[in-house]
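Table 4 source record.
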Amino acid sequence: MDSFTVLVDNAARIVISTRESFVRRYGDAFKDIDISVQRPAVTVKAWARDSSAYFYGPAKVVDADYASFKVIDQYRAQDVNGQYRGLKRL
């Protein structure tokens, strides 16, 4: 199993009660999860990594360069390709 490390956690919790909202925010990888008002998804705004990828909240930072990726603060990171604000490359 890959070691998973939280790098920066700003303690902002996010509660989302529809699948559509969760997929819009975090991507199609979550299109099959069960979310409803009765079973909301609760996640955090946090940077993390395992041995092969970086994450913001529950989602993988797509196309991030692992070797050069550096977290700047609770919202921003950068790699050789540019800066990120959460999952969005600027």
